[in-house]
Write a structure and sequence with these properties.
heterodimer; A: 247 residues; mainly alpha; flat; B: 238 residues; alpha/beta; four-stranded antiparallel beta sheet; 37% helix
């Protein structure tokens, strides 16, 4: 499953994996607005940003091709909005939307695949992110995969009894069965989530996730945060200055 | 020494109106292992969830001399370790080691101590080689052992096991019996596995419709109530 891969990637041991999560988040928070607000020479700026991210994936010893493919998961959503923008007569903005969404997803993927989630959340907690937001993030991550697992089991059980999407769509009321399955899925996921929460409480959980890693923000982390923030800005400024004819 | 667990007149009703416990009296002595037998839905699991305040009903529940109330719940969760029936619900951290350390960190233990206690617990259950693996990649038997390690690491005084042999193959059941029998804690075992209960427990109580209807050795309770797989099977023998 998707989260298996991300968790496996995040357990790596590259220089990027070893950086403090706060340094990575700080760099991400500079990268995203730098990309989102780029207008002039967008193709070149985006190309430069893509090269940067690709270099970071290679530095982190993660499979670049698979990361590029995984980031494409954001495209169906981005394309819907891009088509609406295109239809409104702004083709340039539509292309920009797709490109920026894809690169943003790739940048976020880089951070989450080089930082185990508990460590990332601990880093965010130390930066003052509200505990409630962190709890929601942790549970959302956990329960999304609970729902995914339950859906997979139900799908297998249905397939074992001869069900298929094609047969379902051939019915006169195809959405009734789907709606029923969704209701069952919700009920099962809810029950499973309750069991997980109960098991967490039984082991003394009091609404606060702890990690085995003691985070220490070193000078090397500060240097990384500074460099990783400045480089994308430099790429953007360089592209906009160097290619004045690109508008 | 007094009883580790003392329950008097415990009643509990779920929000949907189902009465799960209807006046349960129960005692557990130090070092004792008791099997909770009975049909599905008879209240066994609901009962054990009262021992560390996961559910609260009417009646008196005292564990290690402490009443179960919101003030004592943090202490009770340290004293009563519950291994749940479905290990997948219990294991949720990215690695086995982090999962075993989860409870220890919640107890306020510092990271180096939690780490060494978690490693020791994994060694106790013979799973030290899996420390860096993701829990969902383990077999059912391995998951169960890791789930037990997560509880044993917290060094509870009472170990509650809910259907520990469910989904395990016979060799897995044997090795789990061996493992649990060597753990020093007093034990409450919710089970349908009579052989497992006989191998592990000094005493059995039988739940039916939310009350305890029989008590004695496992063999006595099973034969008195005809609560044995072989007794049922003999009726259907061709």
């Amino acid at each position: 499953m998707h989260h298996d891969v991300l968790e496996r990637w995040s357990q790596g041991n590259s220089p990027l994996h070893r950086r403090d999560p706060r340094a990575k988040v700080a760099a991400l928070l500079v990268f995203l607005p730098a990309l989102a607000t780029a207008h002039r020479a967008l193709a070149f700026t985006a190309g430069g940003m893509l090269m940067l991210l690709a270099g970071a994936f290679i530095w982190a010893r993660l499979p670049l091709a698979r990361a590029l493919a995984r980031s494409a998961l954001v495209l169906p959503f981005a394309i819907v909005f891009a088509l609406i923008t295109w239809a409104a007569g702004d083709a340039g903005r539509a292309i920009s939307l797709v490109v920026k969404s894809y690169l943003s997803a790739l940048a976020v993927l880089l951070v989450v695949s080089t930082t185990p989630l508990p460590v990332l959340l601990r880093g965010l907690e130390l930066t003052g992110t509200p505990q409630f937001v962190l709890l929601v993030a942790q549970f959302l991550y956990r329960y999304l995969f609970v729902i995914g697992g339950e859906a997979q089991q139900m799908s297998r059980a249905a397939a074992a009894r001869g069900a298929s999407a094609r047969k379902l769509m051939a019915r006169s009321t195809p959405f009734r069965a789907a709606a029923g399955a969704l209701a069952v899925l919700f009920a099962r996921s809810y029950a499973r989530a309750e069991h997980i929460h109960r098991a967490m409480l039984a082991r003394g959980f009091q609404g606060h996730f702890q990690t085995l890693k003691n985070l220490r923000f070193r000078r090397s982390d500060a240097a990384f945060a500074l460099l990783a923030s400045l480089i994308p800005l430099a790429v953007r400024i360089a592209m906009e200055k160097a290619i004045p004819w690109a508008r | 020494m007094g009883a580790l667990v003392e329950v008097r007149g415990l009643r509990f009703r779920y929000e949907d109106g189902t009465t799960a416990l209807n006046g349960v009296d129960f005692q557990l002595g130090a070092g004792e292992a008791v099997a909770l037998l009975g049909p599905n839905g008879s209240g066994k699991t609901t009962f054990v969830l009262h021992l560390n305040g996961l559910l609260t009903g009417e009646g008196t529940v005292r564990v290690c001399g402490l009443p179960v109330n919101p003030q004592t719940i943090p202490q009770l969760r340290r004293k009563v370790g519950i291994v749940f029936q479905d290990s997948d619900s219990q294991l949720f951290m990215p690695t086995v080691l982090e999962d075993v350390a989860f409870g220890l960190l919640n107890l306020g233990m510092d990271q180096p101590t939690a780490l060494s206690r978690a490693r020791a617990a994994l060694e106790t259950v013979g799973m030290d080689r899996t420390a860096s693996r993701a829990p969902y990649h383990l077999s059912a038997g391995e998951k169960k052992r890791v789930a037990i390690a997560g509880i044993v690491a917290m060094e509870p005084e009472i170990l509650v096991l809910d259907e520990p042999t469910a989904n395990l193959d016979p060799p897995g059941q044997r090795s789990l019996t061996e493992l649990i029998s060597h753990l020093p804690q007093a034990k409450i075992v919710v089970t349908h596995d009579i052989a497992f209960a006989q191998a592990l427990c000094h005493r059995a109580v039988f739940f039916q419709n939310g009350v305890i209807t029989a008590e004695g050795t496992v063999t006595e309770v099973v034969s008195r109530l005809d609560w044995d797989l072989t007794a049922e099977r003999s009726k259907f023998r061709p």
